[in-house]
Amino acid sequence: MRIGTETREYEVISSWACLPEGMSFGYTHGIEVDSNQRIYVFHTGSPSVAVFHENGEYMTSWGEEFQGGAHGFYLHHDEEGEHFYITDTERNLVAKTTLEGEVLLRIGTPDLPEIYDEQRTFIPTDVAVGPNGDIYIADGYGQSYVHHYDKDGKYIRSWGGTGSEMGQLTCPHGISVNLRGEEPELYVADRGNNRIQVFTMAGEPKRLITAEMKMPCSFYFFEDEIIFPDLLSRITILDRNDELIAHLGDDPEASKQQGWPNLPKSYYRPDRFSSPHGVCADREGNLYVAEWIEFGRVTKLVRKS
């Protein structure tokens, strides 16, 4: 079975992740691939990180401490190696870990009493890391701010706040650094406003991307392209100028079903997505898609054109 267009086509492998007997996914939220082409699935079950060979063979698991709160999942590559940056929506924190799960840094609620108190909580949904190691946290389920820290977790600045004006955000669900231009930029999936908002690395708003949006969740940059899950209900690929290349697996009816995203298993089809939440690409350009579904769903798309 294949999906895509004449110029961008993929073969669908719907039962790619081979979990061992007795193990199951929770909601599958994030997915990443390391330099050795191992695939990491971040889900709300326990252990929360499941590691697979690129052929779907199960390798190991870790991350029991993130059970229930597993959400944002970013693998950063730099001269120090590869590290995960994780958000936990149950414990209101961000963690930096090794590939084996050792926690190296934790960041909790910012000390900003004008933004956070007992009623106004910090619920981070994604993390990005700049070329200099600075950390950017999207408080997507909390107060709709972006918080900027240095590489050691020292607070620098914040911006945003709930609203729809330029510079304001409503559920900044995902955040990534765009390195395709002359200078780095921050891309924020301003999901509640159904748009992507682009900022300087210091938080100054630059422009909006609004066409062809269906609740963007997060981003994955591959070569000159940007790939992101539209929660309602497809994968979108844009070129280096943020122009559309393809929509994959679009199912306009999925989110209209009663009980969405947790629908009867008989509803789901291998060539249609329901609630994609995370995506990554391996070195061959094959895609791995994690969906926000109660029992988890991971699909591999093998690139054919």
TrEMBL record:
<keyword id="KW-0732">Signal</keyword>
<feature type="repeat" description="NHL">
    <location>
        <begin position="160"/>
        <end position="202"/>
    </location>
</feature>
<keyword id="KW-0677">Repeat</keyword>
<protein>
    <submittedName>
        <fullName>NHL repeat-containing protein</fullName>
    </submittedName>
</protein>
<keyword id="KW-0325">Glycoprotein</keyword>
<dbReference type="Pfam" id="PF01436">
    <property type="entry name" value="NHL"/>
</dbReference>
<dbReference type="InterPro" id="IPR001258">
    <property type="entry name" value="NHL_repeat"/>
</dbReference>
<dbReference type="InterPro" id="IPR011042">
    <property type="entry name" value="6-blade_b-propeller_TolB-like"/>
</dbReference>
